[in-house]
Structures are given as structure tokens and as C-alpha cells.
Amino acid sequence: QVQLLESGPGLVKPSETLSLTCTVSGGSISSYYWSWIRQPPGKGLEWIGYIFDNGTTNYIHSLKSRVTISVDMSKNQVSLKLTSVTAADTAVYYCARGRYGDYVAWVDYWGQGTLVTVSS
Amino acid sequence: EIVLTQSPATLSVSPGERATLSCRASQFTSINLAWYQHKPGQAPRLLIYGASTRATGIPARFSGSRSGTEFTLTISSLQSEDFAVYYCQQYNDWPFTFGPGTKVDVK
């Protein structure tokens, strides 16, 4: 059974960098794309970006200057870094695995998410 | 950006009844739409992809359909474990987007 487990600090100070790791068990990083998705309290789901197993990335325009998603195949981990955070970055952050072939397709597994609060 | 609108926001249903959830896309999207079930504190669960294909292990009471830009998730006979929030999501165009969700609760 594939499992995704997000980990990282639950509290980050404004202007600092948010760093999260998603550890994948029960399956390989290869042959899938990996996403980070977030949900601010009381708001909708927002797709931050994704990375293919070959390292190619795609980010949403509004976060492009601040976000980096990377993969570590040796550790079966996917990471998220978001710099210069503000209170608006407070959210539950989800890691998700997606299928791709001729096109980037649906997400089939999600982690249960981790709440990150930005506050001094 | 494709905007997805879900209705109703809340659907109150008795166990055993049928639930019909709607998701409308702001522009044409072929069939690249998925439905997810989300319960508090749990990982969201893929139910349907390609608008109408059930994911592995999903009970047959869940079905998806499409008519133009309108997508429908139907739960034929609601079970106690089906009370949750349901999201539609398009993966046709980047950025991928979600609807705001429909909460299915007990009537």
C-alpha cells in the first residue's frame, strides 16, 4: 500500500523559509509525478506545483519566484521549499502522487497533510 | 485558469438515499476531471478519474458522468462512511484547479 507522509516544522516565522519533506513508502518515486497542494484555513485547495521523476518542474505563477520542489530518489522523498513566507502561506500542505503518460494526469495518492503556521 | 463551481455547497442526505453532486467548468475541458473524497484528518481519496472511471477499490455505488461542461458524481445509496467533503479537480490545463467542495452530511 502506497503511503505518503509529510513532515517538517509546524511553525515558521515570517520572512523565513518553509521546508517540508514527503516520504514515500510502499512504492517508488519513479514513473510518477509528485505534487504539493495546500489549503489555507477555511479556503479552497491550491496546487503549488509538481515535479516529474526526471526532475522537471512546473509551478503556479503566483508562487514561482519563491518555490522549489525537488526529489531525492535515493531516499524516496519529495521536498518543498517556500521562501519569504507570510501569514498568507499558513495552510495544510499535502503531498500527492500523480500519474502521467502522454499528459499529466490524475493524482491517485495523497498524504494526510501537515499544518504549517506562519507566525512570529 | 479553469474555474470549477460545485453545487450544492452542502447536501444533507439520509443513509440509503441517493446523492447527486455537480461540478461545472468555466470552459471546455475534455474528460480530464477527477473526484476526491476527503474526511477530516485523513488523506483525500481518489474516487473517479477521466470523469467516469472508478479508481481501484472504489465501490460501484460511486459513479461519474459528464454532459458538456457539467460533471456529476452520484452516490447511489449513501453509506455511513460516505459522509465527507467531495472535490472535483481538473487536470486538463495548468494550473490544475479544484472546486470548492460539496459537504455531504447526515439529514
Structural class of chain A: mainly beta
Query: What is the first-to-last residue Cα distance of chain A?
Result: 39 Å
Rg of chain B, Å, rounded: 13 Å
> What's the main sheet of chain B like?
7 strands, mixed
Task: Provide the structure class of chain B.
Answer: mainly beta
- What ranges of chain A have pLDDT less than 50 throughout 5 or more consecutive residues? none
- The total of beta strands of chain A comes to 11
Mean pLDDT of chain B: 95
Instruction: Tell me how many strands of chain B there are.
Output: 11
Given the structure, what is the number of helices of chain B?
0
Mean pLDDT of chain A: 96
How does this structure look, described?
- The complex is a heterodimer of chains A (120) and B (107).
- Chain A is an all-beta fold.
- Helices cover 0% and strands 55% of the residues of chain A.
- In chain A, the strands form 2 sheets. In chain A, strands 2, 4, 5, 6, 9, 10 and 11 form a 7-stranded mixed sheet that branches. In chain A, strands 1-3-8-7 form a 4-stranded antiparallel sheet, with no helix packed on it.
- The model of chain A has no long low-confidence stretch (mean pLDDT 96).
- Chain B has 107 residues and is mainly beta.
- Chain B has no helices and 11 strands.
- Chain B has strands at 4-7, 10-13, 19-25, 33-38, 45-49, 53-54, 62-67, 70-75, 84-90, 97-98, 102-106.
- In chain B, strands 2, 4, 5, 6, 9, 10 and 11 form a 7-stranded mixed sheet that branches.
- The mean pLDDT of chain B is 95.
- The chains are: A mainly beta (120), B mainly beta (107).
- The interface between A and B is medium-sized, with 21 and 23 residues.
